[in-house]
């Protein structure tokens, strides 16, 4: 079984169409990985599906980096 | 067939234009789920699909009830898969002069004809986004552009639908989803049969084609917009009105 970190990064790569080597824990979805607002909404949808959880909108807005997403998932699943 | 393997949701499919749209999409190979407000209406839909020998079914889903829409989409998704084609067709009129219009007449028309479009569209959008393919067609009216005495509520709802369509088209075009309206003129259905002879005659004078349109003449345009051939048309309103309004 892959770790949360590996699974989050895999989804980020798939959703944003970036290479794994480009994705650091500190990477910002918008500034470093080129996501637009619709991409970030879709990314959250994909994370919800992968981890079978619901991320409320006000929490989703705070997820700016890969590490933010990992921390959220670890704390809520 | 062009729409083979696609699930289509048509609201208000028990009669009139919605019924014709349900048939034309099913004839292109889509599995069509049509909605009505009553069990009786839903079984009418199931029966006509059986009679036509086409893939489709009817369900009860009041588009003016948020919970019903949420439940309805869930039911369709688990039984058939997520809809990739949505036709927002359900609609009502509550005509009255503005000076006499009741709040209930305003609210019912805005709820059933406009808020329903927001709700139903939002509920199917996730599935379309994931599939990277979708078609949303909403049935507006010539009245959205022309205005019509006695229909301030209806015209406001339909014009609102067209504005929603253009905005959503911009938001979601990069995901292979098109969002359009078809705006009928006067079509021969229960909605126009409610008018008296004097009203009908007055109406016909304004129609160069000198006749009412048939539901199938709307359905054919909807089927085209739903097809792969129309993939580069988005944010558009197509008028189908025998020449009564040319923009
Ligand atoms: N006929 C025209 O000349 C004309 C012109 C311009 C635009 N349009 C538009 O075309 C669309 C279809 O009109 P039509 O003439 O075919 O109307 P219609 O014959 O009166 O049929 C209306 C359909 O909408 C359904 N419906 C009504 N309220 C609903 C609700 N709250 N939830 C779910 N379904 C509901 C009805 O279901 P039930 O059977 O359960 O009541 C029926 O299937 C409407 O949006 C209308 O505004 C019509």
UniProtKB/TrEMBL annotation, chain A:
Pathway assignment reads: Lipid metabolism; fatty acid biosynthesis; Glycolipid biosynthesis; KDO(2)-lipid A biosynthesis
Q: Which PROSITE patterns match?
A: CARRIER, PHOSPHOPANTETHEINE
The protein's matches in Gene3D superfamilies, at most eight in alphabetical order, are given as: ACP-like
Q: Which UniProt keywords apply?
A: Cytoplasm, Fatty acid biosynthesis, Fatty acid metabolism, Lipid biosynthesis, Lipid metabolism, Phosphopantetheine, Phosphoprotein
Q: Where in the cell is it found?
A: Cytoplasm
As stated in the Swiss-Prot or TrEMBL entry, residues carrying the post-translational modification O-(pantetheine 4'-phosphoryl)serine are 37
Tell me what PTMs the record reports for this protein.
4'-phosphopantetheine is transferred from CoA to a specific serine of apo-ACP by AcpS. This modification is essential for activity because fatty acids are bound in thioester linkage to the sulfhydryl of the prosthetic group.
Superkingdom classification of source: Bacteria
Report any Pfam family annotated for this entry: PP-binding
Q: Where is the Carrier domain?
A: 2-77
Return the InterPro entries for the record: ACP, ACP-like_sf, PP-bd_ACP, Ppantetheine_attach_site
> Which SUPFAM superfamilies does its entry note?
ACP-like
* Task performed by this protein: Carrier of the growing fatty acid chain in fatty acid biosynthesis.
Known NCBIfam families for this protein?
acyl_carrier, PRK00982.1-2, PRK00982.1-3, PRK00982.1-4, PRK00982.1-5
Name the PANTHER family for this protein: ACYL CARRIER PROTEIN (PTHR20863), CARRIER DOMAIN-CONTAINING PROTEIN (PTHR20863:SF76)
Query: Which family does the record assign?
Result: Belongs to the acyl carrier protein (ACP) family.
User: Would you tell me the protein name for this molecule?
Assistant: Acyl carrier protein
Question: Which source organism does the UniProt entry give?
Answer: Marinobacter suaedae
| Gene that encodes the chain | acpP
